[in-house]
Amino acid sequence: MKKHIFKPGECMAWRNRVIPSSDDDQMSGHTFGGGWTEDKLDCLGKYLAEYRKIFVKNERARYFKTWYVDAFAGTGSRSVPDPSTHVEPLFDGDYEDPESQRYRDGSAIIALGLESPFDKYLFIEKSKVRLNELKGEIRKRYSELLGRCEFSSEDANKALRDWSARRDWEKEHAVVFLDPYGMQVEWETLTTLAATKAIDLWYLFPLGIGVARLLTRDGIIDEDWQKRLDLVFGTNEWRNRFYETRIKSSLFGNEETMVRAAGEEKIQEYIEERLGTCFAKVAKGLVLRNSRSSPLYLLCFAAANERSAHTALKIAQWILGHSKGTRR
Ligand SMILES: C[S@@+](CC[C@H](N)C(=O)[O-])C[C@H]1O[C@@H](n2cnc3c(N)ncnc32)[C@H](O)[C@@H]1O
Question: Does the beta carbon of 42 sit less than 6 angstroms from any atom of ligand 1?
Protein backbone atom coordinates (compact mmCIF):
# COMPACT_ATOMS: atom_id res chain seq x y z
CA MET A 1 0.00 0.00 0.00
CA LYS A 2 1.24 3.49 -0.83
CA LYS A 3 2.33 5.40 2.22
CA HIS A 4 0.59 8.73 2.58
CA ILE A 5 2.73 11.76 3.34
CA PHE A 6 0.84 14.21 5.50
CA LYS A 7 1.29 17.63 3.95
CA PRO A 8 1.08 20.76 6.08
CA GLY A 9 -2.35 21.63 4.66
CA GLU A 10 -3.79 18.46 6.08
CA CYS A 11 -4.97 17.84 9.58
CA MET A 12 -2.88 15.37 11.51
CA ALA A 13 -5.39 15.01 14.32
CA TRP A 14 -6.60 11.51 13.58
CA ARG A 15 -3.23 10.20 12.62
CA ASN A 16 -1.28 11.29 15.61
CA ARG A 17 -4.03 12.13 18.06
CA VAL A 18 -2.88 15.71 18.41
CA ILE A 19 -4.51 19.02 17.80
CA PRO A 20 -4.22 20.14 14.15
CA SER A 21 -0.87 21.72 13.77
CA SER A 22 1.33 23.47 11.26
CA ASP A 23 4.28 22.16 11.98
CA ASP A 24 6.99 21.39 9.59
CA ASP A 25 8.61 24.52 10.79
CA GLN A 26 12.11 23.78 9.67
CA MET A 27 11.07 23.01 6.13
CA SER A 28 11.81 25.50 3.47
CA GLY A 29 9.97 25.38 0.17
CA HIS A 30 6.32 25.50 0.92
CA THR A 31 3.84 23.04 -0.52
CA PHE A 32 0.24 23.28 0.57
CA GLY A 33 -3.34 23.44 -0.53
CA GLY A 34 -5.12 22.40 -3.69
CA GLY A 35 -7.54 23.98 -6.14
CA TRP A 36 -9.33 25.51 -3.17
CA THR A 37 -6.17 27.48 -2.38
CA GLU A 38 -6.51 29.26 -5.71
CA ASP A 39 -10.09 30.20 -4.82
CA LYS A 40 -9.04 31.49 -1.42
CA LEU A 41 -6.23 33.62 -2.78
CA ASP A 42 -8.36 34.78 -5.69
CA CYS A 43 -11.02 36.09 -3.27
CA LEU A 44 -8.39 37.80 -1.13
CA GLY A 45 -6.58 39.39 -4.09
CA LYS A 46 -9.80 40.74 -5.59
CA TYR A 47 -10.89 42.21 -2.29
CA LEU A 48 -7.54 43.88 -1.62
CA ALA A 49 -7.60 45.52 -5.06
CA GLU A 50 -11.13 46.87 -4.49
CA TYR A 51 -10.26 48.02 -0.97
CA ARG A 52 -7.26 50.00 -2.13
CA LYS A 53 -9.31 51.58 -4.95
CA ILE A 54 -11.64 53.06 -2.32
CA PHE A 55 -8.72 54.58 -0.45
CA VAL A 56 -7.27 56.05 -3.63
CA LYS A 57 -10.50 57.43 -5.09
CA ASN A 58 -12.40 58.59 -2.04
CA GLU A 59 -11.01 61.84 -0.66
CA ARG A 60 -12.24 61.22 2.89
CA ALA A 61 -10.81 57.71 2.90
CA ARG A 62 -7.44 59.00 1.68
CA TYR A 63 -6.90 60.51 5.11
CA PHE A 64 -6.37 57.02 6.58
CA LYS A 65 -3.16 55.04 6.53
CA THR A 66 -3.94 51.50 5.32
CA TRP A 67 -2.33 48.31 6.57
CA TYR A 68 -2.31 44.83 5.11
CA VAL A 69 -1.58 42.25 7.80
CA ASP A 70 -0.82 38.66 6.89
CA ALA A 71 -0.75 36.78 10.16
CA PHE A 72 0.20 33.34 8.77
CA ALA A 73 2.31 34.72 5.98
CA GLY A 74 4.31 31.72 4.75
CA THR A 75 7.18 32.24 2.33
CA GLY A 76 5.43 34.37 -0.29
CA SER A 77 5.29 31.51 -2.73
CA ARG A 78 4.20 27.93 -2.76
CA SER A 79 4.98 25.00 -4.97
CA VAL A 80 2.19 23.08 -6.58
CA PRO A 81 2.52 19.89 -8.62
CA ASP A 82 2.72 20.66 -12.30
CA PRO A 83 0.32 18.29 -14.07
CA SER A 84 2.20 18.67 -17.36
CA THR A 85 5.43 17.26 -15.94
CA HIS A 86 4.19 15.18 -13.03
CA VAL A 87 5.05 11.51 -13.38
CA GLU A 88 3.39 8.82 -11.31
CA PRO A 89 5.92 6.84 -9.29
CA LEU A 90 6.75 3.40 -10.65
CA PHE A 91 7.09 1.94 -7.22
CA ASP A 92 5.18 2.41 -4.03
CA GLY A 93 6.66 4.79 -1.52
CA ASP A 94 7.08 8.49 -0.97
CA TYR A 95 7.97 10.29 -4.13
CA GLU A 96 8.35 13.97 -4.73
CA ASP A 97 9.88 15.06 -8.00
CA PRO A 98 11.27 18.57 -7.60
CA GLU A 99 11.15 19.05 -11.37
CA SER A 100 7.40 18.60 -11.34
CA GLN A 101 6.79 21.54 -9.00
CA ARG A 102 5.95 25.00 -10.18
CA TYR A 103 5.72 28.08 -8.10
CA ARG A 104 2.80 30.35 -7.52
CA ASP A 105 2.46 33.53 -5.53
CA GLY A 106 1.21 33.27 -1.98
CA SER A 107 -0.91 35.84 -0.13
CA ALA A 108 1.99 38.13 0.86
CA ILE A 109 3.24 38.56 -2.69
CA ILE A 110 -0.30 39.02 -4.01
CA ALA A 111 -0.82 41.84 -1.49
CA LEU A 112 2.44 43.52 -2.48
CA GLY A 113 1.73 43.22 -6.20
CA LEU A 114 -1.42 45.36 -6.15
CA GLU A 115 -1.68 48.22 -8.59
CA SER A 116 -2.07 50.51 -5.60
CA PRO A 117 -0.11 49.00 -2.70
CA PHE A 118 -0.96 49.45 0.97
CA ASP A 119 0.84 52.13 3.01
CA LYS A 120 2.09 49.55 5.49
CA TYR A 121 2.49 45.77 5.62
CA LEU A 122 2.90 43.46 8.58
CA PHE A 123 3.95 39.88 7.91
CA ILE A 124 3.73 37.47 10.82
CA GLU A 125 5.22 34.02 10.36
CA LYS A 126 6.21 31.79 13.24
CA SER A 127 8.82 29.89 11.28
CA LYS A 128 12.00 31.97 11.06
CA VAL A 129 13.10 29.95 8.04
CA ARG A 130 9.94 30.87 6.15
CA LEU A 131 10.02 34.46 7.31
CA ASN A 132 13.56 34.80 5.95
CA GLU A 133 12.47 33.26 2.67
CA LEU A 134 9.65 35.78 2.50
CA LYS A 135 12.03 38.68 3.15
CA GLY A 136 14.27 37.41 0.36
CA GLU A 137 11.35 37.14 -2.03
CA ILE A 138 10.23 40.70 -1.25
CA ARG A 139 13.77 41.99 -1.68
CA LYS A 140 13.91 40.27 -5.07
CA ARG A 141 10.52 41.30 -6.39
CA TYR A 142 9.29 44.35 -4.49
CA SER A 143 12.41 45.96 -3.03
CA GLU A 144 10.78 49.37 -3.46
CA LEU A 145 8.14 48.30 -0.89
CA LEU A 146 10.53 46.81 1.65
CA GLY A 147 10.54 50.06 3.64
CA ARG A 148 6.78 49.70 4.17
CA CYS A 149 7.09 46.18 5.57
CA GLU A 150 7.32 45.02 9.16
CA PHE A 151 8.04 41.42 10.10
CA SER A 152 7.38 39.31 13.16
CA SER A 153 8.23 35.70 13.94
CA GLU A 154 5.99 35.56 17.01
CA ASP A 155 2.84 33.53 17.41
CA ALA A 156 0.14 35.23 15.31
CA ASN A 157 -2.24 35.71 18.26
CA LYS A 158 0.31 37.58 20.33
CA ALA A 159 1.75 39.58 17.45
CA LEU A 160 -1.72 40.71 16.32
CA ARG A 161 -2.78 41.80 19.79
CA ASP A 162 0.46 43.75 20.32
CA TRP A 163 0.31 45.37 16.89
CA SER A 164 -3.32 46.33 17.33
CA ALA A 165 -2.63 47.98 20.72
CA ARG A 166 0.09 50.16 19.15
CA ARG A 167 -2.12 51.63 16.40
CA ASP A 168 -4.09 54.85 16.31
CA TRP A 169 -7.41 53.59 15.00
CA GLU A 170 -8.69 57.11 14.46
CA LYS A 171 -6.19 57.41 11.61
CA GLU A 172 -5.54 53.88 10.43
CA HIS A 173 -7.49 51.09 8.74
CA ALA A 174 -6.46 47.54 7.96
CA VAL A 175 -7.25 44.32 6.19
CA VAL A 176 -6.14 41.32 8.23
CA PHE A 177 -5.79 37.89 6.63
CA LEU A 178 -5.74 34.84 8.90
CA ASP A 179 -4.67 31.79 6.96
CA PRO A 180 -3.76 29.09 9.49
CA TYR A 181 -3.38 25.41 8.70
CA GLY A 182 -5.52 24.46 11.64
CA MET A 183 -7.04 25.75 14.85
CA GLN A 184 -4.37 28.29 15.81
CA VAL A 185 -6.56 31.41 15.88
CA GLU A 186 -7.88 32.24 19.34
CA TRP A 187 -11.24 33.92 19.83
CA GLU A 188 -9.70 36.66 21.95
CA THR A 189 -7.60 37.69 18.95
CA LEU A 190 -10.75 38.09 16.87
CA THR A 191 -12.46 40.23 19.50
CA THR A 192 -9.34 42.39 19.73
CA LEU A 193 -9.42 42.95 15.96
CA ALA A 194 -13.15 43.67 16.01
CA ALA A 195 -12.77 46.18 18.86
CA THR A 196 -10.59 48.41 16.66
CA LYS A 197 -13.68 49.16 14.54
CA ALA A 198 -11.24 49.69 11.70
CA ILE A 199 -10.39 46.22 10.43
CA ASP A 200 -11.77 44.07 7.63
CA LEU A 201 -11.04 40.44 8.34
CA TRP A 202 -10.55 37.45 6.05
CA TYR A 203 -10.37 34.28 8.11
CA LEU A 204 -9.80 30.76 6.86
CA PHE A 205 -11.82 28.93 9.47
CA PRO A 206 -10.84 25.24 9.94
CA LEU A 207 -14.35 23.88 9.38
CA GLY A 208 -13.66 20.37 8.08
CA ILE A 209 -9.98 19.83 8.78
CA GLY A 210 -10.33 20.95 12.41
CA VAL A 211 -13.66 21.50 14.11
CA ALA A 212 -15.78 18.84 12.38
CA ARG A 213 -13.11 16.21 12.99
CA LEU A 214 -12.83 16.98 16.66
CA LEU A 215 -16.57 16.68 17.24
CA THR A 216 -16.86 12.96 17.85
CA ARG A 217 -20.21 11.24 17.34
CA ASP A 218 -20.59 10.27 21.01
CA GLY A 219 -19.37 13.58 22.45
CA ILE A 220 -16.39 11.98 24.14
CA ILE A 221 -13.69 14.45 23.22
CA ASP A 222 -10.14 14.54 24.45
CA GLU A 223 -9.72 17.28 27.07
CA ASP A 224 -7.03 19.16 25.11
CA TRP A 225 -9.28 19.23 22.06
CA GLN A 226 -12.18 20.54 24.12
CA LYS A 227 -9.94 23.34 25.37
CA ARG A 228 -8.85 24.11 21.83
CA LEU A 229 -12.50 24.30 20.70
CA ASP A 230 -13.22 26.65 23.63
CA LEU A 231 -10.32 28.87 22.52
CA VAL A 232 -11.45 28.88 18.88
CA PHE A 233 -15.08 29.73 19.68
CA GLY A 234 -14.39 31.82 22.78
CA THR A 235 -16.97 29.90 24.78
CA ASN A 236 -17.83 26.33 25.76
CA GLU A 237 -21.39 26.86 24.58
CA TRP A 238 -20.56 24.91 21.38
CA ARG A 239 -21.29 21.75 23.38
CA ASN A 240 -24.99 22.64 23.59
CA ARG A 241 -25.09 23.74 19.97
CA PHE A 242 -23.40 20.71 18.50
CA TYR A 243 -24.69 17.95 20.78
CA GLU A 244 -28.06 16.66 21.89
CA THR A 245 -28.78 14.54 24.92
CA ARG A 246 -30.78 11.39 24.22
CA ILE A 247 -32.28 8.96 26.69
CA LYS A 248 -31.52 5.33 25.96
CA SER A 249 -33.44 2.59 27.76
CA SER A 250 -31.57 -0.52 28.71
CA LEU A 251 -31.89 -3.43 31.08
CA PHE A 252 -30.34 -1.25 33.76
CA GLY A 253 -32.74 1.64 33.34
CA ASN A 254 -32.56 4.89 31.41
CA GLU A 255 -29.19 6.16 30.35
CA GLU A 256 -28.33 9.64 29.07
CA THR A 257 -26.14 9.72 25.98
CA MET A 258 -24.71 12.54 23.90
CA VAL A 259 -25.21 12.57 20.17
CA ARG A 260 -23.58 14.92 17.69
CA ALA A 261 -26.16 17.08 15.99
CA ALA A 262 -23.82 19.25 13.97
CA GLY A 263 -23.05 19.01 10.30
CA GLU A 264 -21.12 21.40 8.11
CA GLU A 265 -24.01 23.90 7.92
CA LYS A 266 -24.48 24.10 11.68
CA ILE A 267 -20.81 24.72 12.28
CA GLN A 268 -20.77 27.42 9.60
CA GLU A 269 -23.90 29.01 11.06
CA TYR A 270 -22.34 29.00 14.52
CA ILE A 271 -18.98 30.58 13.66
CA GLU A 272 -20.72 33.25 11.58
CA GLU A 273 -23.08 33.93 14.46
CA ARG A 274 -20.10 34.20 16.82
CA LEU A 275 -18.30 36.64 14.49
CA GLY A 276 -21.54 38.65 14.41
CA THR A 277 -21.31 39.17 18.17
CA CYS A 278 -18.24 41.39 17.77
CA PHE A 279 -18.02 42.52 14.11
CA ALA A 280 -20.42 45.01 12.54
CA LYS A 281 -21.19 42.76 9.56
CA VAL A 282 -20.39 39.19 8.58
CA ALA A 283 -20.61 37.66 5.10
CA LYS A 284 -21.90 34.22 4.27
CA GLY A 285 -18.65 32.33 3.93
CA LEU A 286 -17.40 30.12 1.15
CA VAL A 287 -16.89 26.43 1.90
CA LEU A 288 -13.65 25.25 0.32
CA ARG A 289 -13.65 21.57 -0.57
CA ASN A 290 -11.16 18.93 -1.61
CA SER A 291 -11.38 16.85 -4.79
CA ARG A 292 -13.86 14.52 -3.11
CA SER A 293 -16.09 17.43 -2.21
CA SER A 294 -15.37 17.14 1.49
CA PRO A 295 -15.31 20.50 3.27
CA LEU A 296 -11.85 21.60 4.37
CA TYR A 297 -12.18 25.24 5.35
CA LEU A 298 -14.72 28.03 5.49
CA LEU A 299 -13.48 31.31 4.06
CA CYS A 300 -15.07 33.96 6.29
CA PHE A 301 -15.27 37.72 5.92
CA ALA A 302 -16.20 40.21 8.65
CA ALA A 303 -16.03 44.00 8.80
CA ALA A 304 -15.50 45.87 12.06
CA ASN A 305 -16.20 49.43 10.99
CA GLU A 306 -19.91 50.33 11.32
CA ARG A 307 -19.72 53.09 8.71
CA SER A 308 -17.93 51.21 5.96
CA ALA A 309 -19.18 47.71 6.79
CA HIS A 310 -22.10 47.87 4.37
CA THR A 311 -19.87 48.59 1.35
CA ALA A 312 -17.18 46.19 2.53
CA LEU A 313 -19.73 43.41 2.88
CA LYS A 314 -21.25 44.09 -0.53
CA ILE A 315 -17.86 43.76 -2.19
CA ALA A 316 -16.79 40.71 -0.20
CA GLN A 317 -20.10 38.92 -0.64
CA TRP A 318 -20.02 39.53 -4.38
CA ILE A 319 -16.50 38.12 -4.59
CA LEU A 320 -17.37 35.09 -2.46
CA GLY A 321 -20.57 34.49 -4.42
CA HIS A 322 -18.76 34.61 -7.76
CA SER A 323 -15.89 32.39 -6.71
CA LYS A 324 -15.72 29.13 -8.55
CA GLY A 325 -15.90 27.28 -5.23
CA THR A 326 -13.73 24.70 -6.89
CA ARG A 327 -14.09 21.00 -6.19
CA ARG A 328 -10.83 19.88 -7.70
C1 LIG B 1 -1.29 27.95 5.11
S2 LIG B 1 0.29 28.61 5.47
C3 LIG B 1 0.13 30.27 4.94
C4 LIG B 1 0.16 30.45 3.50
C5 LIG B 1 0.21 31.89 3.04
N6 LIG B 1 -0.92 32.66 3.55
C7 LIG B 1 0.24 31.96 1.53
O8 LIG B 1 -0.78 32.17 0.88
O9 LIG B 1 1.36 31.77 0.99
C10 LIG B 1 0.30 28.82 7.21
C11 LIG B 1 1.61 29.41 7.75
O12 LIG B 1 1.40 29.76 9.12
C13 LIG B 1 2.60 29.52 9.85
N14 LIG B 1 2.19 29.37 11.25
C15 LIG B 1 1.75 28.26 11.89
N16 LIG B 1 1.39 28.54 13.16
C17 LIG B 1 1.60 29.87 13.33
C18 LIG B 1 1.40 30.76 14.42
N19 LIG B 1 0.90 30.33 15.59
N20 LIG B 1 1.69 32.06 14.25
C21 LIG B 1 2.20 32.51 13.08
N22 LIG B 1 2.43 31.71 12.00
C23 LIG B 1 2.12 30.41 12.13
C24 LIG B 1 3.18 28.28 9.21
O25 LIG B 1 4.58 28.20 9.42
C26 LIG B 1 2.80 28.48 7.74
O27 LIG B 1 3.84 29.06 7.02
Answer: no
